TrEMBL record, chains A, B:
PANTHER family: HELIX-TURN-HELIX TRANSCRIPTIONAL REGULATOR, ICLR FAMILY (PTHR30136), HTH-TYPE TRANSCRIPTIONAL REGULATOR RV1719 (PTHR30136:SF35). Gene3D superfamilies: 3.30.450.40, Winged helix-like DNA-binding domain superfamily/Winged helix DNA-binding domain. Pfam families: HTH_IclR (PF09339), IclR_C (PF01614). Keywords: DNA-binding, Transcription, Transcription regulation. Coiled coil: none annotated. Residues 70-252 form the IclR-ED domain. SUPFAM superfamilies: GAF domain-like (SSF55781), Winged helix' DNA-binding domain (SSF46785). Residues 7-69 form the HTH iclR-type domain. This is IclR family transcriptional regulator.
Amino acid sequence: MTTQPGTETAGRVIDVLLLFTDGPDDLGVSWIARELGLSKAVVHRILQTLVARGMVELDQESRLYRLGPTTAALGARALREFDLRAVATDTLRRLHRQTHETVTLTALVPGGRAYIDQIVSTHEVKMTVELGRRFPLHAGSSGKCLLAFLPQPRREEILAAELSALTDKTITDEETLRTELTAIRDLGYASSQGERQADAGSVAAPVFGLDGNVRGSVSVCGPRSRFTPQFVGACAPHVVEAAHDLSTLLGWKATGPGRPTASLPAPPP
Amino acid sequence: MTTQPGTETAGRVIDVLLLFTDGPDDLGVSWIARELGLSKAVVHRILQTLVARGMVELDQESRLYRLGPTTAALGARALREFDLRAVATDTLRRLHRQTHETVTLTALVPGGRAYIDQIVSTHEVKMTVELGRRFPLHAGSSGKCLLAFLPQPRREEILAAELSALTDKTITDEETLRTELTAIRDLGYASSQGERQADAGSVAAPVFGLDGNVRGSVSVCGPRSRFTPQFVGACAPHVVEAAHDLSTLLGWKATGPGRPTASLPAPPP
DNA sequence: CGTGTTGTTCCACACAGCGGAACGCTTCAG
DNA sequence: CTGAAGCGTTCCGCTGTGTGGAACAACACG
């Protein structure tokens, strides 16, 4: 890794916090220390700081730490201000009415992507996603369509890294993924059959921000049995439309003849 | 302040983050530095770290920083896991059906309290609260009922400090507040007329956790004109019941004959 | 009763981060 | 048009803060 900007110590604090979003709910000192390659002493001190401000709580019995009220408060504020989510509510509801399946909103975050909102299906057998947890970009429709429309340098970075297998359907071969991404750019949407979650299927389309870069994606997802090619085909236009509407709401203006221009390189160095 | 536990630097990182919940949406380096009494260099470095992890975003034009996608993701996770909120949804909805006013859920956080959730009134003229922002405990019904049932040492700490006036109705006199708090403990609920927000009225009751300490509060609030003594009296039983239900859901067991025991001192030294 | 974990505390040392100062830039007043 | 005052950013030598290995107590397992 090229030395991150900012300070080492500050980074560690955030890294500890973010571990809580990726892993299980409660974490112990040693586990965190191992995970981040830090000494137990350091981790312990950071956790003390976090506890003092209510960002995490210490369960006296189990001696495990979990996210606390301050983080919940911070989160409530962040979600309120986060334009993508604020702007999406109505559109998501519409998409839900059209498909009756679970619809999700995904944001691009450093280190991957995370679901930031969902409306769950009314079906008895349905899918729910884990809000806030980070997932890699190469698995699942929401991830793939982000990856497909990412500025080329960042995309190459990710393609160059190891493509971990979340299920046995996850695309782990670089070349296969490349052609898949080209197809996604052509179609304007992505679909997946069990790539991230074994018994789930999904269709997703990208949302672009003011600067023309991908900001997130919208998806319809559910039990794999219901996601037949026919259903996927029927959903796709709705998903694409919803994503397009969100892009517009975020101030994005179509440059080409209707379809977003793929992979503009990021502006300045 | 007695030197906080944990490390200085780590604390600063969190303090910077939390400024975003208390103040306006976008902040500049100098403003933050002034607010926290730090050098601009330090703040700038911390912000760089936060930007690198997506916790905050930099608006290139205005050179102002605001909360970013990672914080939104972290927040989504924290809110999902935060038992008080998770457990409250149904109860809040019921309370909303009973009163047709805005109902809120408040959590106790270091440095005050913050609204964690709300269901807004269906009336045309209604109140909405600012989720995630920290408010002091001595103003407003949600705050006062937290303060009233806080373990004595912590309560005294707050009473000893300056009682800032958020409106001209805010109780700023220590003795007046003391008798008010006693009344609240007797009644089991608190009410306010414009103490925190000039043209708002509210009724609130405390929620207790497994350990018998206050965790948060539930309130019904709205435009002051509708919060007549009659309406407050009519609401109170519902609010108290809702709060009681939540306490039960959190594992709290009534010790006395129905009413929660006030102000147990905190267990260990 | 040892041997493996935990989480927590201590302390001398080194180096990471601090912060004053300087920079380039924009904005506003005169 | 000039000057002052604000902003965010960068630099660099000194220092004081946080580091991390080791030692500790408290459990858990066999």
